[in-house]
Give the backbone structure.
Amino acid sequence: MRKWAIAVFIVLLVIACKTNLQRKPVRNVVLITIDTLRADHLGCYGYGRAQTPNLDQLSQQGATFWNATSVTPLTLPAHSSIMTGSYPLAHGVRDNGGYYLDNKWQTLAETMKASGFHTGGFISAFVLDRRWGIAQGFDEYFDHFELSKYKTVSMDSVQRRGDETLGKALAWLDKNKTSRFFTWIHFYDPHTPYDPPEPFRSQFQDKSWGLYDGEIAFVDNLVGRIRDFLSSNNLLSTTLVVITGDHGESLGEHQEAGHGFFIYDATTHVPLIVLDPGEKPVKISDQVRSIDLFPTIAEAAGVKIPSSVQGVSLLPLVRGGTLPQKLTAYSESYFARFHYGWSELKSLRTPDYKYIDAPEKELYRLSQDRSERNNLYDGDASHAKPFEAEITRLVSTSAAVETPKFVDEDSLNKLQALGYIGTYTAPLQSLNSGPLPDPKGKIRLYNLVKNSQGAAAEDKDDEAFKQIQQVLQEDPRILEAHIILGNLYSKKKDFVRARESYQNALKLNDKYAAAIFGLAKSYEDEENWDAAKAGFQRLTELDPHDSKAFFHLGEIALHEKKFDIAVTNFKHAVDLDPDQAGARNRLGACYLEMKDYDKALAEFQKALEQNPRIPNSHFNTALIFEADGKVNQAIQEYKKEAELFPETYAAYFNLSRIYRARGDLNEERNQLESCIKEKPDFGIAYLYLAKNLMDTNGDLDKAIELATKGIETTKDPEQLTFGHYLLADVYNRLGMAGKANNEVQLAKKLQTK
């Protein structure tokens, strides 16, 4: 009887568990990814100094995973894996920049949208801009980074504060709260530079790694605002909330500051909190992966999981059950290989052990060595064998990382002659051959490279030169070091040495985009248009998604007055990057030169909508109004340009001509004086100012001084002729007939040339 009762109880328990797992799907999903967030700097993961009350509360209410691992410590590849449920080995996005998530992959957003969800993505860093393919499936995607306002553009530098991103996200949620929605909100604040707003800066700045913790506290506050929105709109009971980090941050562990280089837990162990409505809180020690988020979200929402997904649903764990099998977590970083010519790193992790596949192999027992200091591989290599076999299996089934690009023989010879292709076989072998230096043995040089980059960014060029030259003396095969040296020489306008540095990088890897771009840009700066065009064209072949090369090809064609070619290239840049005001502005400049004023005005207006502070847009708009006889509107646009960019001397000069035509000689004089202040070598402005003094009975000696200065600073024959006649007129008025005659003769001599 007792056995029968136990059997009935077990059956009822199984039925109850199945019923629990098969209950009504959640109505909505909110996915929050917090960039550069390591798990052990949150209160709910045991960090005593944390101020993360909102994340801690959500952890107390939901499922908290103690062993969640990122696929890679790089933002774009990590998010590509979250959005596809697949490893970088499969989707092929191995680095930030230069890699694109192919549209053949069915993303989480596409899957949710196909099932009737409204989809919105709100991101805080350029590294996740739609151009990289990560926006697939979103009805609304808030990226909108206007690169022209940044002094330098890099994957790390272009970002926005989380409260700006959150404002856009909450507005979208409010608009879609009555529909089924899936939203992804990305916060970038814990990424360097650590610069939390007040009051978090004051609260944390005097503590070790305080500013990093301050950024986390700031984001925690934003997470609290999301929870409050869901609560106040009665959405918490119907919404799955998933919070995780894309990767962590090394705070000096293994001598690494930052992330991307190593794949120790400091940069791959991330928090994962899942709030499933109606479920009891649970702490989960099972090993899980970032690729498991896609199927977990899909199953919770009652959505079919695509066959391409490599991850598994964690919903059984969230709801108190178990998984059919234990998971191992794969991580990788090809950063050292792509940027430095050193070996890539690959790892497999369980809650107890971690194996790192490197030239010097590593094995750690995490349950006894969380800091990964005691390498057990030499003494326990047999324990690593299953890990090694699994990595071999994973890699053998992966897609190729590099795809050779065909270049015809004539183009190859030209590119090689110009230094775009190395003259000997590149020592960087294909990704499947030959040992390379172990990054562990290169960490000092890596840090020296990073220090040099930091010094250059702060305009400490002498310090940067010294450091990067030391690096190259010790290891001349470091690609990134040659690029930094080339950039430093370019900054000094020493283009010969700059080109030599870029060419040294191309000898190591003739497809290295940064070296090709630097070399092409140095040719462009020297007005060697043919060589510059060859380089930028090479970039369009290697990376047809990158708008920069098309932009520069447009600039060169515009300079050469090949307007049709310029239009084609600027249009291509705009098509690739519709939010970039700079390309639209230059496209408008082409139409202006072609006297197609309607198209020009349309482009300038779009550029100003995207970036009200885009240089020359107001100026160019004024040119159109002036050509169309709308003088008052032209005046207003010139004034706007001068107000935003006081250094735009041409705006003052053009205003002076309008006021001259109107007979307002006092205002003409004011504008000419402003023009000369901003452009002391603008000869024609001196000549017109001298004429103004003569026409207003001003100081004739001053007029002589101005006219003489104008003649000295202009090379234009017509302006010189005008200047000599102007001086002749002044001398005549002063009764100096001989000097006047000399000036007339000089003017006539110029006219006969």
Notes: Residues 683 and 714 are 5 Å apart (CA to CA). The chain has 32 helices and 14 strands.
